[in-house]
Amino acid sequence: MQEALVLAEEAGRVGDVPVGCVIVRGDEIVGRGANEIQRMGDPTRHAEIVAIEQAVRTIGEKFLDDCTLYVTLEPCSMCAGAILLARIPTVVYGAADPKTGACRSVFELLDDQRLNHQATVRTGICEEECSTLLRDFFARQRERDDAPEVEQSRQGAPNTSGALYLVPTPIGNLEDMTLRSVKTLREADVIVCEDTRHTSPLLKKYDVPRKTLLSYHEHNERERAMEIAHRVAQGQKVALVSDAGMPGISDPGYRAVQACIEAGCRVIALPGASALTTAIAASGLPTDVFCFVGFPPQKKGRTQFLETHLAYHGTVVMYESPYRLQELIDDIAHMGGAERKVVVAREISKLHEEYIRGTAADVAAALRARGGVKGEIVVMVAPALQGAL
């Protein structure tokens, strides 16, 4: 419940009713959530809903029948329905609010045998702390309503103590974390990551204290960017990480950076691991002029994309899936010439790190003979008219 209180306090700081929720399975927190109603402009974004969604993603199953849900405020009817659908067997809440009529909905929905699900509902856990948090929040809201002009002047400029930190994470070997990156994660108020399941082991390895983890991926990037900017403007230190490497480089991050800049907030990028710079440094191809083009299109526009970049006067660097690597090298040989120099880097900084060097024809033949390769892939193509390696 203490973790749920932390989430509730953070929600209150950014203008949402301070309600936090944590879902636990065994000794592991699998879902965290705080009210996002005001931030997302969505009346359904209650803390329980947010936490259940994250727990389902973490576990990979839609039923949470071996979990316990802790929430700072008695669930409303909508959240009780979500708890029922997720088949959560134990619900623990702190503060009670008789005005919502939630108590009746919780007990009737969760303990009705006709709904094929029974739950244990407990209250009184940190009840005073949860109630105080709500009372203080609404007292401040009333004060602001009584003095709107003063409040507007306070909100005129972002809090300069906040910042968005772009924190690179290891692309393979977990020891590639920098001391500054670890320090930043430990000091951050909230950590924003692509996949909480991927980031949690890294945080555990470096003894980063438990704190709010927010998911940030291609499907929620636009909405979450506004929340990140709002948090930073309120004075929070927000650390943004991707699953591997530098956030924003072929990974989510651009929109968060843009939103913070537009809001007048600080953006600080930390140096660190990057597959792009690591691969080209060891490629043996010219590094004085190069162009990074991300992932090639799979279908529409692919031919024009490759023809354009293969005519570039410097080294071309791109990422590719191991399942599409053979096709890409074959296309490079066809469009750029069989003798074009190519380097394929895979599993950089990991146990099976490898650089496959040669002409496009040679590399294509080597891959075909192997039946393909596995791992994270960086493909580098020498400039047009480039000589031998």
Write up this protein.
It contains 15 helices and 15 strands. It is of the alpha/beta class. Strands 2-1-3-4-5 form a five-stranded mixed β-sheet. It has a five-stranded parallel β-sheet with strand order 8-7-9-6-10, sandwiched between helices. A five-stranded mixed β-sheet has the order 11-12-15-13-14, sandwiched between helices. Helix 14 runs antiparallel to helix 15. It is elongated, with a radius of gyration of 25 Å.
What descriptors fit this protein?
alpha/beta, 389 residues, five-stranded mixed beta sheet, 20% strand
Short synopsis of the structure:
With 389 residues, this protein is of the alpha/beta class. The chain has 15 helices and 15 strands.
Tell me roughly what share of residues is in helical segments: 40-55%
Main sheet: strand order: 2-1-3-4-5
Q: Give the uncertain stretches in residue-range form.
A: 148-155
Mean pLDDT level:
85
Main β-sheet description: 5 strands, mixed
List SSEs in N-to-C order.
HEEHHEHEHEHHEHEHEHEHEHEHEHEEHE
| DSSP strand count | 15
Give the overall shape, derived from the CA principal axes. elongated
> How much of the polypeptide forms β-strand, as a percent range?
15-25%
Q: Cα distance, first to last residue?
A: 61 Å
User: What would you call the structural class?
Assistant: alpha/beta
* Cα-based radius of gyration, to the nearest Å: 25 Å
* Number of DSSP helical runs: 15
